[in-house]
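[job 4417] fold queue: 2 targets
>>> target A
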Amino acid sequence: MIYQSFAQLYDQLFDPEMYQKWEEFTIKNLPADTKSILDLAGGSGRLGVMLAARGFDVTVADFSAEMLSIADQHATKAGVNMHLLQADMRDLSALPQYDAITCYADSFCYLADAKAVQKTFNEIADHLKDNGIFLFDVISPYQTDVIYPGYMFNYEGEDHQRAFIWQSFKDDDVDHGVIHELAFFTRGNDGRYDRVGETHYERAYELPLLKQMLSQAGFNSVEVGSNFSTSIKEENPTRWFFKCHK
């Protein structure tokens, strides 16, 4: 059997267009004098590599040591230097301050509750320099309550060596909660498939609550948009994008 970890398979199959869009959104909204960037929950470092290639001093922080190992491989392949740090985003006390902090892929929605989100917002505000900027996205309650329940996505590679199944269900135990069942299948030389699976839990928050938490953390200006912009373009956005000034 050819065994690959969940982190490796996730990195290989994640839509690269999303990283390009996050990069464009980031560059568009960064102040001209930005030098240092912390990409929080930066995973396999693909966005970090793109930003480092533009000349920024980039730190990628993630809870997963395996993801950071993959990020190191991407940085080496691209010939860029990045700081890699294993960290829980609810406690950034070991980190310095940055000109900008980014956090994408609805990472805050994986935290346990609003209390954890508030603590993380507080940590981020504390680790931004004066006039620093915080850019992030989250899925909306419309996504968790309407789009995700009953959602299914299936993928099979053209060579029939890999397959991916993603199913989502409503989480009745929390408001605006959703459960994702993810399974990767890789085919070995013997023709049999090896399965790697995980269960992910997400929850969304109402926009007024998010704004309140950001204000409480110390952000004095908050712009909210959708579709990779800072203006709402849909009646029912599935994802919000935030630009926050300290």
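>>> target B
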Amino acid sequence: MSKIVKTLTIAGSDSSGGAGIQADLKTFEEYGTYGFSALTTIVTMDPDNGWHHNVYPVDAAIVAEQLKTVFAGGPVDAMKTGMLGSVEIVQVAEKAIKDSLQTNVVIDPVMVCKGEDEVLNPESANAIRDLLLPLATVATPNLFEAGVLSGLGKLTTLEEMKEAARLIHKLGTKNVVVKGGKALGGDLAIDVFFDGSEFTVLETAKIEPAYNHGAGCTFAAAITGGLANGLTVHEAVAKAKDFVSAAIRSGYAFNQYVGPVFHGGYRLEK
């Protein structure tokens, strides 16, 4: 390789391997990049209690030490954030991005774990909105997160997704992808991309069975990989849609509770 392309994820651990920092690093590898990581939270899922999620944030000072290590080599070609766990960790991420003059920043404003429907930490969600969205090249909220960030609440239609994207863009991010995925009615998995002036609707046929655990993290990581490799934001988002669709098609049933995407699906289909 004539040039090492570097990517970074600041995110939580998913021991089941489908989402979080594990999904990000697998995706970075599929994009041919060298992945760095800073672990923010450890998430466990309890098979004896209906797959209930427990979230254990890492001390913010330790997150800062990890990022000091990463940025000792200068800025990376692109980076993303995922689950951050506390206001202090959000502040650490903000400082690292600013101090390193980092560009190509993807903010995945993770507020819940799949299967959960309440904001894990409302103060952290507010900090992501206020501190990180203004630094974002792309923000990638799902329907729940877009409803919270925009103040619109539950989103159920394409037009509501577009309005949420417009309102989130006003918070400072340069581009927004509202991930509808399989959540909207009909036969299509729909995402909406907004660059501040135009909307692009990204559609693929819904996949059944939908082994989609980790799809959101994987999508944001794929955008990161695309930006690191020199794609435009629009190109990176379009390729990420194809990448995550292939990952869902190649997914499998991990147990009775969850089925993760398979991050090598795009490569295998090629």
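[job 4417] complete. Note on B: The chain has nine helices and nine strands.
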